[in-house]
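Following up on my earlier thread - several people asked me to post the actual chain instead of describing it. Fair enough. Here it is, all 301 residues.
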Amino acid sequence: MKKILLFAACTCIALFSCSKEDNSDPPKPKPPTPPTTQTNIPINIATTAWTKATDSGFESGDKVGIYVVNYSGTSPGTLASSGNHVNNMGFTYTTVWTPDTKVYWKDETTKTDFYCYYPYTTAISDVSSYPFSVKASQAALSDYKASDFLWGKTAGVIPTPNSVQINVSHVMSNIIVVLVPGDGYTANDLKSATVTIQNLKTSSTINLATGVATATGSAQDITPRAETEYFRALVVPQSVSNVDLIKVQIGDYTYILKQTITFEANKQHTCTLKVNKTEEGVNIVIGGWEKDSIDHGGTVG
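Reply from S.P.:
Thanks for posting it. Predicted structure:
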């Protein structure tokens, strides 16, 4: 009898133990955290003539600055000196545009505005008033190129894995001076001529939200770059009235052209000067200012 009771007791313990293990629920795995959808911001820039001062578009190693400003609902944001979705990120060109650091969209739906400028700098403290100057001497190609400033904006971009196209244009103006031999001169005589652009302000402040440059400071002389058939210089947009604008020096003779003109952003102005030698000296007859039918603006995109 004792053996029977002991067996029963052991049996009960075993059943109890098994019953407890069967009734316990296994730990539930935590649901995976939904991945945050982020898309690299790709910048693709297509160029046409006059997109760069070199006339050949962006070159390997060129660098632009990009600001990205998010919308709030359906309302566009305001470009600020800091606190934007992307602040002054440098993108360097080889065959594609590569950011200094990878940047991402906020999410899959928030629209943004893209602002682009060239040349890139880290020295922007106020996006509404960035100081920029053209070179007083643009005889060297490097100084001529350094006087070019490009700006563009693409608004209301919906997040996409595709490249964002940004069209850029010149913030500065361009002057072309062509010398034509008149009475007493030959084309060969004019090869020794030097040209100076006078009485123009070379400094400006640029609003990076609008791409508008405002001339500042005092007027200076500008030495243009001598090309094969003409002289050219980049100038700050401004208006001048009845000033000694162009000086031409041929040997011992100096010729001064007075002119009234408004230099406009992203416009090329051609000035053809016919030089005549007279008994009293030399006079200059100016051809009309022309605005090319070519669109001198460029694209970043």
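Residues 2-23 form the longest helix (22 residues). That should answer part of your original question.
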